[in-house]
Amino acid sequence: MQFINNSLANLIKNLGTNYPITSQHFKDYFLDQISLASCKRVYSYKYINLQNRFLETGLFPIHEFHSIFKDKISQDNYHYAQKVWKTFSCKTLEEYHNLYLKIDVLSFADIWTQFQITCMQYYELDSSHYVLVPALAWDAIFKIIEVKIELFTDMSMHDFIEDTKHESIVIASYRYFKANNPKMNKAFNPSKPTT
Fold first, then answer.
1. pTM listed for this prediction
2. Phi and psi (nearest 5°) for 29?
3. Which of 3, 56, 174, 179 is 20 to 30 Å from the Cα of 147, by its Cα?
4. What is the per-residue DSSP string for 98-146?
């Protein structure tokens, strides 16, 4: 989400109490459950390294909780994870994992919806029609200043504008996962766990 350059936790805080999509999805839950669902959760990305971990029936211990950016999580965050586990009646790590992902996706949807509303309110532009920020910013500038640009007749002016655009799509992949299952034929290693 290049459009919104901040952490998910901060973006969720910026929403205040405005979670229309998350609230709609959790409409059959109590208010305290919805408030738990509308906060950034904690998850042990490094601990979930094998599929059979999903079958575990308890929350991983605090020393196994590592965020992507920090080594350890705080005791408060661990208590929060335990509260989420208990409140949503998670029975396995798979249920906790699926809840975590569902809430992340719903939170992103709420954030994007709010961003879309803000763009429509201030610029009368739908951010969903833009792949990258520079294109949205370009259109927003010309809507605000209400200046019409003449077509370029000088090729050097065209080249100048094209050279100043820095649109690109960047994908930062953090994880590496190597599959190992019988369907891989010769690549399958029976001495290693099936993934």
1. 0.64
2. -100, 165
3. 3
4. HHHHHHHHHHHHHHHHHHHHHHHHHHS--GGG-SSHHHHHHHHHHHHHT
Q: What is the pLDDT along the chain (195 residues), one digit of tens a residue?
A: 455 666 777 777 777 777 778 878 877 776 677 777 666 667 777 778 888 889 999 888 887 776 555 557 778 888 888 888 888 899 999 999 998 888 888 888 888 888 889 889 988 999 888 887 888 888 898 888 887 778 888 899 888 878 777 666 656 565 666 788 888 888 888 998 887
Among candidate residues 64, 97, 92, the one with its CA nearest the CA of residue 78: 64
Cα 130 from Cα 92, distance rounded (Å)? 40
Beta-carbon neighbour count of residue 23 at 10 Å? 17
3-state secondary structure of 188: coil
In angstroms, rounded to a whole number, what is the distance separating the alpha carbons of residues 70 and 68? 6
Q: What's the helix, strand, coil split of the chain in %, to 5?
A: 55, 0, 45
3 state DSSP class of 82: helix
Return the domain boundaries, the chain: 8-187
Token duo for residue 87: 């409140």
Within 8 A by CB and 6+ apart from 146, the residues are none
